[in-house]
Amino acid sequence: MKCTNTVCNPVRTAIRIRPFITYSRGGFCVSVEGEKGVRLINPFVNKEATDFEMYASFGSDASQDDVFSKEVASLLPELFQGTNITILAYGTTESGKTYTMQGTTVSSRGSSENLGIIPRAVTQILERKTRNTSLSVSYMEIYNEKVYDLLQTRTSQIELVVREDVSQNIFIDGLQELPIRNIKEFNEIYKIGHKNRKSNASKIDSRSSRSHATLTVKVQRKIEGQLLSSQLVLVDLAGSEAAIHMTESADINRSLFTLRRVLSPLNGDISNSKVITALNRPGTRVPYGDSTLTRILRDSLGGNSLSLLIAHVSQDIKHYVDTLNTLNFAARSKRLIEPNFDAVKLFDEHRCREGLEERQLFHEMHFSNLLVYARAVVRMVKRDQQAEALPERSTTPTHPTSTPPSLGSKRVMHIYNAVDDSPPKD
Predict the structure, then answer these.
(1) What pTM was estimated for this model as a whole?
(2) What topology is assigned to 7-350 in CATH?
(3) 89-98 per-position pLDDT tens digit
(4) Strand, coil or helix: 266
(5) CA–CA distance, 298 with 188 (Å, rounded to integer)
(6) Domain locations in the chain?
(7) Are 272 and 6 in contact (CB under 8 A)?
């Protein structure tokens, strides 16, 4: 994956499957097929299989070292050549995002096999550091489209403002950047940010699962009197499932949906010449400014950058719809065609009806998920009706009837009526 002077090659997308947390009676719905393939089994439609192809796929038996060595380690040397690197962890809450990025604390015996991408990457960067290289770290949280400094020592956090400098570079006014010289200094800084994020989560339910956490390691090198600057951006995205509160849900959906629009492919395969032509057309744009997350990541996703999206899924059959959503997101994010530095205009002739088409797609995605869910509910209700129609053989049933998922009876009836002409009897 290399960048040229004009166009950066596609974003890499990888899938990681989380093993079962507890025993599941329903079985699994997703599996790895080879080094790049993923197979999704639809439990509601005759075990129908859908195959996805990514740049890499990691099964439930993959180790932390497998993910880091195969997908991350080879990118880090590019930092010292002035290339920005962005790594994003995507998926629902408890799908394994934070474990991949952060891992677990090193045990008392010194085992580091469970360390995540963040500590491994920082260690490798420090090992390559020379005397003319300086490193600094910042750590922020984006919650409800607002930015907070996780390294802020004040008892009450202050909302920070995203700005542009005279060269149109994005910066966060007031965000601390703390220098690091060794892994011990980094660990101390990271613990502060991690503690502040956990503190925020305890104050507002599980806020940490509904916010984006972004750790940035800035690398600056002095070469022949000139300063070469680049950064590694590591993002633990908010859970992609529906949030509890309307405001949170709207903001999470907006940021993740905008991220998908920024990362998604153009309509079909487009040659470099057509891309360059589109870039030069007036009025074209990539929608970075449509959410706080993508605005902050603008300089780290396109242009002189390399990006890796690791999508996390659960193999448990009860998470089928979430897994389908995640795989669709990853599949749509496989191509990022973006010019270097200033040429940030794109998608003109291919996005002339952008607003309407994107809104339609957004609603279609949600409707298709609802339809899958509704069909499952319909089958459960019909099965229960059939069971009730049978003559009662025993006062104590040997097999309890199925209970539709807890949507509430009115919502179940509404879904049932939407997909079936004969509603269940009272």
Answers:
(1) 0.72
(2) Kinesin (3.40.850)
(3) 999 888 999 9
(4) coil
(5) 29
(6) 7-350, 353-389+400-426
(7) yes
